[in-house]
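dumping this here so i dont lose it
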């Protein structure tokens, strides 16, 4: 279990992020057109998982904008922005912002992604949502970098994520 800050208060997650060097856990997530994708759909590409509580919070929105600004410059890399928001909210946000270089995916249906990656909040106001985290996966499905952001109000370390590619 990881402990992070949310609005200055300690909250816990259901586990720890997967270990660097381990095989990334598979997932099934919902796209904006309500189709289901899994990790294998991105096989052969490097992947940055930008994971956050909700697209409708300022820091979460900033992380999506920042990764979108850099995603097109990254060779053979997909940036997946993952939350428990409904796919419609994710699509609305990116459409209004003109963001086209990230892929929004929702864990709204089962929450299994958050559980399997050890980042579901188990207490506090956002219990059931995802903590803010980054996971970088190489072309072979091996985890190269993780960051459990210690304070949910803070942005992730973008440069560390990019450097791990």
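and the seq i came up w/
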């Amino acid at each position: 279990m990881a402990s992070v800050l949310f609005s200055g208060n300690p909250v816990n997650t259901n586990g720890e992020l997967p270990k660097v060097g381990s095989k990334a856990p598979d997932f099934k997530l919902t796209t904006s057109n309500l189709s289901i994708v899994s990790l294998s759909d991105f096989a052969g590409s490097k992947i940055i998982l930008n994971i956050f509580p909700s697209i409708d919070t300022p820091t979460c929105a900033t992380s999506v904008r920042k990764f979108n600004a850099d995603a097109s410059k990254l060779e053979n890399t997909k940036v997946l922005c993952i939350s428990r928001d409904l796919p419609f909210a994710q699509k609305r946000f990116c459409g209004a912002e003109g963001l086209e270089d990230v892929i929004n995916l929702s864990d709204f249906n089962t929450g299994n992604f958050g559980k399997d990656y050890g980042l579901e909040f188990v207490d506090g106001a956002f219990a059931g949502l995802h903590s803010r985290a980054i996971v970088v996966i190489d072309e072979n499905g091996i985890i190269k970098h993780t960051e459990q952001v210690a304070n949910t109000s803070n942005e992730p370390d973008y440069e560390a994520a990019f450097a791990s590619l």
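The longest strand covers residues 77-83.
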